Amino acid sequence: MQVVETIPALRAARAALSGQVGLVTTMGALHAGHLALVAAAREENDATLVTIFVNPTQFGPNEDLSKYPRDLPRDLALLEAAGADLVFTPTPALMYPPGFQTAVAVEVISQGLEGGHRPGHFQGVATVVAKLFNLAGADRAYFGQKDAQQVAVIRTMAQDLNFPLAVIVCPTVRESDGLAMSSRNMYLSPEQRRAAPVLYRALLAAGESYAAGERNPEALESQMQAVLAGEPLAQVEYVSVADARTLQPVTDEADSPLLLSMAVKVGVTRLIDNMLLPGELNTRAGLTQMLGGEPPAP
Ligand code: PAF
Question: What is the average pLDDT value for the chain, to the nearest integer?
Fold first, then answer.
């Protein structure tokens, strides 16, 4: 595994990779969710490129940029064991040199849900991912379902700007009690950690109602709210029932696939989770069809 820190070194190492390249972009603090993306990239490509960069422009002024977990030696050891071929670890000064002034705004799908609560977040994400897509020259880029809106924003950006790569979405990897893997889970105290699976329980409850025939979006949302209300440590930021492709809120009973999603604070830690309905869509193929996308025709 080769580790590069500069753009000329990345370009040289990328040029030396042969065949199809899979890209996994990360902010480090790697967990089993990231490693599942690396495994998928390895399986479906000839070489795997991973980026580790805690992107300052996607953090709001009161968010956790300074305390975001960083452990590069541990991350590199995990990536080596996972079989990554090339790892790019730029600094903020390299990605945003003096005079940097370009931003990528994906206007509509960035609004609402996470975008509604984290102003500027998706502009930061779209800009850094556009830069990483340009630098990586990958054939496929792999993202996790947990950040469902993020991947829909990136898919839209990739299509609108004609990036010739497929955006692949892999299912959320969960702890044994259902908590979605996240680098931020390490902020939770033991008591908060015990409370945190309530997000998944709320999604499962709505999913079961849907499977039993419930199609009313308000009823599905109330059901999630009721489960969350049963956990005193959970402070709900939003709970949403949206169209799975457009992410627009659904108000009437609809037959089209749904994205249930939520952001909930447990203590000061903000957790997010989501599920597609019907439940069969929560597979690599279903998620990629709804939230990801194939490259534009040549
Ligand atoms: O999901 C993440 O880790 C980040 O938002 C990403 C896609 C690496 C962009 O900084």
Answer: 97
Report residues whose beta carbon is within 6 angstroms of any ligand 1 atom. 25-27, 55, 58, 125, 128-129, 147, 150
Task: Give the distance (Å) from ligand 1 centre to CA of residue 26.
Answer: 5
Catalytic residues: 34
Q: Is residue 22 within 8 Å of residue 47, measured between CB atoms? A: yes
Nearest to 226 by CA among 217, 236, 216: 236
What separation in Å is there between the alpha carbon of 91 and the centre of ligand 1? 15
pLDDT category at 13 given cuts 50, 70, 90 is: very high
Q: Which amino acid is at 51?
A: T
Question: What superfamily in CATH does domain 183-277 come from?
Answer: Pantoate-beta-alanine ligase, C-terminal domain (3.30.1300.10)
Q: What is the DSSP letter of 83?
A: T
pLDDT at 213 over 70: yes
Task: Quote the pLDDT of residue 32.
Answer: 98
127 three-state secondary structure: helix
Question: In the chain, what are the domain boundaries?
Answer: 2-171+285-290, 183-277
Ligand 1 center–CA 64 separation, angstroms: 14
Q: Is the pLDDT of residue 296 over 70?
A: no
Q: What is the pTM of this model?
A: 0.97
